[in-house]
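A quick aside before the break. I want you to see a complete sequence-to-structure record at least once, exactly as it would be stored in a machine-readable document. Don't worry about memorizing anything.
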Amino acid sequence: MHMSRLALPASLIACSVMWIYFFQVMEPTIKAEAVQSHDQGKVLGDLFPSWYASRAFFLQRDNPYGQKVSGEIYRSYYGTGLVTKGRNEQRFAYPFYTIFLLYPLIAFQFEQVQIVSGVVLLIAIASGTFLWAKLFLPDLSPRTLLILEALVLSSHPALQIADRQQLSGLVICCLALSGFLFARGNLVTAGFALALSSIKPQMALLPTAWMIGVSVSNWKQLKNFVYGFAALLAALLGISHVLLPGWEGDFLRGMQAYDRYAVPLSIIGLFAGRKVGFITGIIACFILAVLCWRWRKAARISSEFRTMLALVFATSAVFMPVSTPYNQLLILPAVLELIRHWDDLRKSISSRVLLICLAVTFWPWVGASIFLIYSFVGSVGVWWTAPFYLSLMFPLIVCYLVAKLRLSSGSVVLYNPAR
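That is the input. The structure line, written in tokens, reads:
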């Protein structure tokens, strides 16, 4: 793949600008807003409930879903135990076995945990990017890989994952590891990685359904993948039930409560309303199911398998009922698929559409540069989010382009165990 000599220094400069913008503009503004609103959610981030619930269970044997722990977490965020309707209750809302991952951190103060988790999550994102790149673009040069890593690690989703200490970063890494190992034939280990991604079921649902479906359709060759996935997931669920009988009901009730106070919306739902978003999501999943059924026999090393995997992840990013930016890293496989078929894509779309796509893609870095320069002479104020205004459009564009690419493709390469 031909790359300009200026691409690498430009990407490193863009990465540096975005992170300077993060520390110079975003962080101070977020902390100032937290002081004014008496809401520590943007300061404590999303990891605090899970970390606190883990400490409560391992040190005091308290139910992490119970009213006592939930109340203590709520007071940490808002300074009061009085629950306000519509306010994020900040409960522990993960499967119980998530606390196993956080056990090494319970001995530290949360300020230390925030630093460690931020670094670990960025490493997880970088690792996931590397694995996806090796799967979709195996001939990628080290120079181009460095450019890709710089842009991904300075993207809005990566910034938010590091800032809020979102476990989505680990899930994305597990999904990438599973896909990479699956394609390489390391089926049992790939199943283990997919089982670990279930700490956020809503993120892993469609990729899990696709990979399990492919394995069942090619049972003799791929059954070890299902065995690995089922074995680890059963072990996690079994150990969790022994340690906290009935946690499954507590978890489901917590998810129902989350739906009341968070009002989760997909990207489509944000633009068109919750009902339209829900109906559109059902239609999209039906179309995806038809395509997945059609290509279920695609060889795991084929172009068709990679394209369908990218489309599954893109659909998750667009139609998942939580439209937060950190989940948008699920779109990365689709972006790499578009890069892999860049020449075909340029022929199939107009130059005007291509220009719009590129403008949406690179606006965050351009916008951050503009507002960073302005921050040294004036106050950015409420406009600090302007570089990210178009971020919700990016998954929609990528999903459309991948679907167009898939529908215009030719015959499928069927699974051949000898390959």
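Two observations worth writing down. Confidence is low (pLDDT under 50) at residues 411-419. The two ends are 26 Å apart (CA to CA). We'll return to this after the break.
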